[in-house]
Design brief:
Elements (H helix, E strand, L loop, with lengths): L6 H64 L1 H10 L7 E10 L3 H14 L3 E10 L3 E11 L3 H9 L3 E11 L1 H27 L3 H33 E9 L14 H46 L1 H13 L8
Parallel strand pairs: 1-5
Antiparallel strand pairs: 1-4, 2-3, 3-5
Helix pairs in contact: 5-6
C-alpha cells in the first residue's frame, strides 16, 4: 500500500513550531533580564546604602574632627590640666623663690592666685636682721590652673627649690559617698519606725538610735566636704626671700685709708684698755694715798716726843775733860 504525503500541511506546521519556540525563548530572555535587573537593582541599592553609611560615618568623623579642631587648643589644655571624670586627686606644692623685693613679689602672687579663681589662705611677712624681708604664703588654686600658677610663681624670681605631690583619693571619695547613702537610708528607716511606734519606751529607744545615726551621717558629710575642698582646690605654699649677701668691691687689697683706720682703731682700743686699768687700780691708789696722808698727820701732831728724844741723846753723851 502506497502512502501519500501532503507537503502543504508539513510546511505550515514547521513555521508554527519555530514561532512557538521563538516566543518561549523570548519570554525566557525577558524573565532573565528582569531577574538580572532586579538583582542588579538590589545590589545597587545595597551598595548605595553601604556607600551612604560610609559617607555618613566619614561625615560624622569629619564633624568630630572639626569640633575638636575648632576647640583644639582649649580641649587639649583641659585634658592636660584637668583630671578625668571620676578621678579625685589632692595636689600640693611648695616653692622657694629668691626675689629682689618681697612685698612686690607677694602682691604678684596674690594677683596670680585670685586671677586663676583661687584665694590666699594665709600670709606672713617679717623682716630679718633689719636687712631683708621674708614672706610665707599659702595659696589655694583650682586644679585646672595648678600647672599654670606654678609656672607663673616660679617666674617671679630665682627658683631655689620646688616640691610637689599628688595623692589619689578616689577610693576614699567613693567609699564616703556610699556610706552616706547607706546612712541616709538608715536614718529614714528609723524615722519611719518612730512614726509607727506606739509605746513610749520604743519611741525613746528609737530617738537615741536616730541621734546616733544622724551624728554618724553628719561626720560623713563633713568628711565629704573636706575631700571636695581638697580635691577641687590645690594647695601651693610659697616662700619668698631676698638675697642676704652684699656685693663687695673688686679691689680687696688694703690701702692707706685701711691702714689709718686700723691704726686709729688700735689706738682707741689701747686708750680704752688703759682707762679700764686705771679704773681698776683707782681704789687701791686711793687707799694708799689715804694711808700716807694719815701718817703725815700723825707725825706732825707728835713734835715734842721727837725733841725729847734728841735732848736725851745729847745729855747722855760724856762731858769733855777739863783742861
Amino acid at each position: 500500500m502506497q502512502t501519500y504525503r501532503y507537503p502543504g500541511r508539513s510546511s505550515v506546521r514547521r513555521p508554527r513550531t519555530l514561532l512557538a519556540a521563538g516566543l518561549v525563548a523570548g519570554l525566557l530572555a525577558l524573565s532573565g533580564c528582569g531577574a538580572s535587573d532586579s538583582a542588579s537593582d538590589a545590589s545597587s541599592g545595597d551598595s548605595k546604602r553601604a556607600i551612604g553609611a560610609a559617607e555618613q560615618g566619614a561625615a560624622d568623623a569629619a564633624s568630630g574632627k572639626a569640633e575638636q579642631g575648632a576647640g583644639g587648643a582649649p580641649s587639649q589644655k583641659k585634658k592636660s590640666d584637668a583630671l578625668p571624670s571620676g578621678i579625685h586627686v589632692i595636689r600640693t606644692a611648695t616653692l622657694s623663690v629668691e626675689v629682689t623685693n618681697v612685698p612686690k613679689a607677694a602682691a604678684v602672687a596674690r594677683s596670680v592666685a585670685e586671677s586663676s579663681g583661687g584665694l590666699v589662705a594665709s600670709e606672713e611677712t617679717e623682716r630679718v636682721d633689719d636687712t631683708h624681708d621674708m614672706s610665707h604664703l599659702v595659696l589655694r588654686v583650682p586644679q585646672g590652673e595648678y600647672d599654670a600658677v606654678l609656672k607663673e610663681l616660679a617666674g617671679t624670681g630665682k627658683l631655689l627649690s620646688r616640691t610637689s605631690s599628688a595623692k589619689d583619693v578616689t577610693d576614699q571619695v567613693v567609699d564616703v559617698e556610699s556610706r552616706i547613702a547607706t546612712q541616709r537610708a538608715s536614718v529614714a528607716r528609723v524615722r519611719k519606725l518612730m512614726e509607727q511606734a506606739g509605746k513610749l519606751s520604743d519611741v525613746v529607744t528609737l530617738e537615741g538610735e536616730l541621734s546616733s545615726r544622724q551624728a554618724t551621717l553628719e561626720s560623713l558629710l563633713a568628711q565629704q566636704a573636706s575631700l571636695k575642698d581638697r580635691t577641687s582646690l590645690a594647695t601651693v605654699t610659697l616662700d619668698l626671700s631676698e638675697p642676704e649677701t652684699v656685693v663687695k668691691d673688686g679691689d680687696d687689697d688694703p690701702g692707706f685709708l685701711d691702714a689709718l683706720g686700723g691704726g686709729w682703731h688700735a689706738f682707741v682700743t689701747m686708750l680704752l684698755w688703759l682707762a679700764m686699768a686705771a679704773g681698776a687700780a683707782a681704789p687701791f691708789l686711793a687707799a694708799l694715798a689715804a694711808l700716807v696722808l694719815l701718817w703725815r698727820l700723825l707725825r706732825r701732831r707728835l713734835p715734842g716726843r721727837g725733841k725729847s728724844r734728841t735732848a736725851g741723846a745729847a745729855g747722855s753723851s760724856p762731858a769733855p775733860p777739863a783742861s
